[in-house]
Design brief:
The chain is built from 8 helices and 15 strands. α2 packs across α3. The termini are far apart.
Length: 254
């Protein structure tokens, strides 16, 4: 079992690492002290299990998971000091967590459970539980998206995105007349975005609703949609119900 340790406190990372040493089947593949580095490392190394600190400055543990593509979500043992709301969410969705200071017996039980999970067919269920917790119980969406280009990682603020286009198996984020290639599918990215802020109008297009300035009907429930950045996009009949529902709210131009 390949393990990544994420915590902004060096002593906390060392404590987890020392507790893992007696486990012959565990390989610690890395340690991270902040959220952005954790995202990069998870994408690069694809660990089986991540010990993830919930409270970290700048980008907390929940935000780390929110910016990851759904298919890249690892199994997680959350580590937290006092977040009672988080503890309730973990319990509801049967996700494992450790309280600081870490109890040795509780730690051993959590690792044993994780090991059994790695050897079972229920692993994908954990990713589903994590997504449910992030979207429902914690009620938040990513505030930024990390885009990797070679050795560089760019942070794109979600609020700055005007529209999104498909690029094969990837997507392009269009931000103020610049584009960023993201290694994530349209469906996966759509699932992580706030549906009240972004609208899918075509299998290859998602637009920010507040950027819509004009619609022109063209044929059989299809439209040409003009955005505030000057770009135009054709909607498809497949996604007409969502567009029509949005139009019915009377929020056009806001």
């Amino acid at each position: 079992m390949r393990v990544l340790i994420v915590d902004d406190e060096p002593l906390a990372r060392e404590g987890v690492s020392l507790r893992l040493k007696p486990n012959a089947d565990v390989e610690v593949v890395g340690e991270c002290g902040d959220g952005p580095t954790a995202v990069e490392t998870i994408l690069e190394l694809a660990p089986d299990l991540v010990f993830l600190d919930v409270q970290m400055p700048g980008m907390d543990g929940f935000e780390v998971l929110r910016v990851l593509p759904t298919e890249k979500l690892p199994a997680v043992i959350f580590v937290t000091a006092h977040d009672q709301h988080a503890l309730r969410a973990f319990s509801v969705h049967a996700l494992d967590y450790l309280l600081k200071p870490i109890d040795d017996l509780r730690f051993a039980v959590a690792v044993e459970r994780a090991d059994k999970l790695m050897k079972s067919t229920a692993r994908t269920q954990v990713a589903e539980r994590i997504l449910q917790m992030l979207n429902n119980d914690l009620g938040q969406y990513p505030s930024h998206i990390l885009v990797r280009t070679g050795q560089r990682t760019q942070i794109v603020l979600v609020e700055d995105i005007d529209w999104i286009s498909a690029a094969g198996e990837y997507t392009e984020l269009h931000v103020r007349n610049r584009s960023h290639l993201l290694r994530e599918t349209m469906s996966s990215l759509q699932g992580r975005l706030d549906p009240t802020a972004f609208l899918r109008i075509h299998r290859s297009r998602i637009v920010r609703t507040r950027c819509i300035v004009e619609l022109r009907s063209v044929d059989n429930r299809e439209h040409v949609i003009a955005l505030s950045d000057g770009s135009e996009h054709r909607s498809s009949r497949t996604y007409a119900p969502g567009l029509e529902q949005w139009l019915a709210t009377g929020r056009l131009g806001r």
